[in-house]
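Hey, sorry to bother you again with one of my protein questions. I've been staring at a protein lately and its backbone has me curious. I owe you a coffee for this, so here goes:
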Amino acid sequence: MGQNFIACDREQELLLPPSLREWLPEEHFAWFVLDAVGELDLSAFYAAYRDDGWGRAAHDPAMMVALFVYAYAIGERSSRGIERRCRDDVAFRVITANHAPDHATIARFRVRHEAAIAGLFGEVLALCARSGLVKVGVVAVDGTKIAAAATHQATRDYEQIAREILEEAARVDAAEDALFGEERGNELPEGLRTSGDRRKVLRESQAGAGSRTRRAGQADSARSRRATG
């Protein structure tokens, strides 16, 4: 009888449930963010876009706002990091409905709507603080700042925290732009970006390792013969 393993077929379609609602448990923080953003006034964001249907299609501001709120709340400040998570992280894929805005688009949205994002993120931070999410570590924001804001019970204190986070995000993006240019920063080197190239390099590496092992064995044998000769 053969060994009994659970099948691992990466060519299989629909490895994830067809409904995004089934990708995360109901109590996941991403759903909290989506529900919170759904209750906020986003008219300032929508007013910045044409309402005649012309022009290049843009990502829905509601989705982008939820993306920023979730990313910043869990400690992700980098636009490149957010792009990577939109491809690799199930919670981010749920928030974006399986879209993956690139880091340049993410950064432009932040710059274009910085004041409005700060206001809404401040509201969500206040809601998180009142709900106890900061205390249990769900929200990755300096607890000292949150505690200080809570003592005043003023939304503007949370907005100040949000503005500081946005300023940090801008600094991170500027540093990564200088380092990576237009690249994401996590691309594989040229020659390793396709399956065929990777297999070729790995086979050559294994062949080279085998050759080095044989030469080392031959050298050891020669030294042994000289020592006993």
Notes: Residues 20-180 form one domain.
